[in-house]
Amino acid sequence: MSDPKRSEAMDAFLHRAGWSGAARSTLAGDASFRRYERVAHANGAAVLMDAPPPHEDVRPFLDVTARLTVCDVSVPKILAADEAQGFLLIEDLGDALFTRVLRESPAREEELYLAATEALLAIARASRANAGAWSRELKPYDTAVYLREAALFAEWFLPQVTGIDRARRLREEYLALWRDVLAAAQLKRDCLVHRDYHADNLLWLDARNGHHAVGMLDYQDALWGDAAYDLVSLLEDARRDVAPATVELCAGHFRKAGGEGDDFAARYALLGAQRNAKIIGIFTRLTVRDGKPHYLDYLPRVWGHFMHDLTLPLLAPVRQFVDHHVPAAWRGRFVADAAIGGIAA
Questions:
Q1: Of 78, 142, 204, 324, which is the most buried if we count CB atoms within 10 A?
Q2: How do beta strands 191-193 and 44-50 pair?
Q3: What angle do CA 106, 111, 117 make, to 5 degrees?
Q4: Angle between helical axes of 244-257 and 109-129 (0-180°, round to 10)
Q5: Which of 283, 262, 191 is nearest to 231 (CA)?
Q6: Under 8 Å between Cβ of 229 and 269
Q7: Quick one: which of 75, 166, 157 has its CA closest to 122?
Q8: What is the Cα–Cα distance from 69 to 285, expressed in whole angstroms?
Q9: Contact at 8 Å (CB) between 273 and 316?
Q10: Other beta carbons within 10 Å of 180
Q11: What are phi and psi of 268, to 5 degrees?
């Protein structure tokens, strides 16, 4: 902990929560300002979330935790909260991330991914049952958000290929294509969308059964949108390859059990393309702005997903733009030392 005052504030929070003198050890950080510590005490083990204001706000995490609890899925129980200082003490769901479990036992992929698909179906059912209130209370995953996210591709990745000045000019052309695509699409807004539902944010809870064995993390940015978004996040994972048979099994199960219509495959591909464009932009930004070049290692996989999704006929104009402005040699990992920055939105 680089800030002694912040560390002292964490100890004071733990004291107020009845966990005085708890042993603290660094657990993890992520691409945001949030960081986590595991705390050990006579009370047991828990996780301390440090989300320092003004960079972070714990209130969305608390709100979405309550909603996901209504959905009957496994999220950490809230043990104590200090919203003003950005501290939460939450249930410790363990270390068995899907990524780790599957690295050790790859044959369990279908088991874990089907359970994660069932958890998404539980969220969809509860969302639709509570749609009257939740559709008003959760921010919408609407065209403005889709465009803002898709723009990250033009603002951070495209300058690496075309240079900053040309990328700035091409940004509006690129966004105009996405506006047309989204206007023609039939995306739904009837479900709480986790927005970061993938193997590094899911824990396998061996002591629980069915979809309750899937523990969820990092859902504080949830919006009200299309249920297909989280499924494509799960199956088109930026960090690990999912077997085609598992993708087909889970997508088919979700479509049938969720009562999805004939437009499901198109919604899935469109949201996959939009998400992968966003990820390419974010991983580039993490490299060129934040000095985290290891994110480039994931780009070849993300580009593979992106180009596959762009085979959807509705997305042909976006595909043509990419084909024209991004040579095939650039559709993967670029040299971080050559990164030139991004453009202002």
A1: 204
A2: unpaired
A3: 120
A4: 30
A5: 191
A6: no
A7: 75
A8: 34
A9: no
A10: 13
A11: -60, -45
Say if strands 214-216 and 202-204 run parallel, antiparallel, or are unpaired: antiparallel
Q: Which residue has the tokens 């650039």?
A: 330
Give me the residues paired with residue 88 across strands.
49, 81
Question: Any bridge partners for residue 29, and if so which?
Answer: 35
Cα distance between residue 289 and residue 278, in whole Å: 16
Burial class (CB in 10 A: 0-12, 13-18, 19+), 55: exposed
DSSP string, 11-38: HHHHHHTT-TT-EEEEEEE-SSS-EEEE
Give me the helices (H) in the chain, please.
Answer: 4-16, 59-70, 98-104, 109-129, 131-137, 143-152, 158-162, 164-184, 228-235, 244-257, 264-288, 299-309, 316-325
Give SS3 for 239: coil
Q: Which residue has the tokens 């898709």?
A: 150
Q: What is the pLDDT along the chain (345 residues), one digit of tens a residue?
A: 567 899 999 999 999 999 999 999 988 656 568 889 999 999 999 999 999 999 999 999 999 999 999 999 999 999 999 999 999 999 999 999 999 999 999 999 999 999 999 999 999 999 999 999 999 999 999 999 999 999 999 999 999 999 999 999 999 999 999 999 999 999 999 999 999 999 999 999 999 999 999 999 999 999 999 999 999 999 999 999 999 999 999 999 999 999 999 999 999 999 999 999 999 999 999 999 999 999 999 999 999 999 999 999 999 999 999 999 999 999 999 888 889 999 965
